[in-house]
Amino acid sequence: xxxxxxxxxxxxxxxxxxxxxxxxxxxxxxxxxxxxxxxxxxxxxxxxxxxxxxxxxxxxxxxxxxxxxxxxxxxxxxxxxxxxxxxxxxxxxxxxxxxxxxxxxxxxxxxxxxxxxxxxxxxxxxxxxxxxxxxxxxxxxxxxxxxxxxxxxxxxxxxxxxxxxxxxxxxxxxxxxxxxxxxxxxxxxxxxxxxxxxxxxxxxxxxxxxxxxxxxxxxxxxxxxxxxxxxxxxxxxxxxxxxxxxxxxxxxxxx
Length: 255
Prior knowledge:
Elements: E1 3-8, H1 14-17, H2 29-37, E2 47-50, H3 54-62, E3 68-69, H4 86-92, H5 94-102, H6 114-126, H7 128-135, H8 158-170, E4 197-200, H9 203-213, E5 230-237, E6 240-248
Helix pairs in contact: 2-3, 4-5, 6-9, 7-8
């Protein structure tokens, strides 16, 4: 059994329409309407999260999700470029923009480099099994030893064996619900089958997750396009992720 992580990109706002580096702008009316219209198509999930941006929080609310904020899934920190137009920054700082696009370790804006973004999101993705284990109450009494090789009852499997077992448990679909939906803590109400983890996150976070999950070169980040209100599904476990890309979240679709 594997864990399933479904990432939902937020609805449109003015910053996306006008090619701004997002400065935490809210959804516009059209974006909010589109999210509300797609609410019935949201996949079921055992754990529901959202990034910290206003756009992600408003999209989650419009989709009818009681999501829990997750700092590790916040959008790309672009430092002093946040809120500015891409063409404006390109005209004012052409060398800096070229370095930013050409070198994954560069952060000329004073924020987070592409490498740091992918490492942050990848760390969360690989830890999603542990999130699922905690939510499903599947603690590991054996645990890891202080040297990272595992506890006395580990029999040599170490971290990878524990992690794989956690993924097996986190991916099991055994929840129940009476009327669907989630509680204020982001957990499913009783009676509805669960489907791993769902998170509403910025497009850059989706792209970073795909790059990490498929072990792509960091430069591939720039060649991935994430549409508004699209589903990207990663299933598997650390080191063995499969990706289903960019299905539109529409009212006619139900997973």
